[in-house]
Amino acid sequence: MAGSWQAKAQAGGMLLALLGWVSSCVTTVVPLWKSLSLDLNELEVWTMGLWQVCIAHEEGAVECRAHGSFLALPPELRVSRLLMCLSNGLGLLGALLAAAGLEGWRSCQDRPGLKQRLLLAGAAAFGVAALATLAPVSWVAYNTVLDFWDDTVPDIVPRWEFGEATFLGWFAGAFLAAGGLLLACSARSARATTAGHAARRGERQGLRPSRRPRERL
């Protein structure tokens, strides 16, 4: 029963973590972190991402231009680039480590302790990847709110608003955190189960009667 729960928890955690990792990669690439609609020209919608700025026209055409110098970017975009790339790398590392530690995987079957450590390491990598995703997305969202409600900017000036990638990044971080937590819980449960089996085996061996031959008188 415990093994069945562990297998289901590992499968669910792996699925959530992979979904979060893919969503984090998409969030890193797409130019949809911010959106801007011009009141004077409603036929165009501006969107901004970590790597480029795009203009979507009413007829469906999209024009994109990459950002200039890295040093010329706002601090939140520079840090967001680094953290999102770190998150994507940690997500890939966590997937490889956790996959090797799954119960259904045949690697290290004779070394259950190693499999549990690999699973915990993968869960930790997913947890750090979640933080590395949530931090930049929340920072950019916070600055967007501050700029939107800035009283020093005239009301006629268009304001940047949340883009779709902001919400996708929040979901990605939540999925990564939930998946890592499930994997960590299943690894801890597997360790406790293994320790219990070892203790019971030791007790049975201790209670087993000795079969040494009797000494003759």
Report on the structure:
The chain is α+β, with helices and mostly antiparallel strands. It has four helices and five strands, in the order αββββααβα. It has a domain at 2-32 and 74-153 and 163-199: Butyryl-CoA Dehydrogenase, subunit A, domain 3 (Up-down Bundle). The chain has helices spanning 2-29, 75-101, 112-148, 164-207; strands spanning 34-37, 44-48, 52-57, 62-66, 161-162. Strands 4-3-2-1-5 form a five-stranded antiparallel sheet. Strand 3 and strand 4 (62-66) form a beta hairpin. The protein is elongated, with a radius of gyration of 26 Å.
What is the strand and helix layout of this fold?
Blueprint: H1 2-29, E1 34-37, E2 44-48, E3 52-57, E4 62-66, H2 75-101, H3 112-148, E5 161-162, H4 164-207
Antiparallel strand pairs: 1-2, 1-5, 2-3, 3-4
Helix pairs in contact: 1-2, 1-3, 1-4, 2-3, 3-4
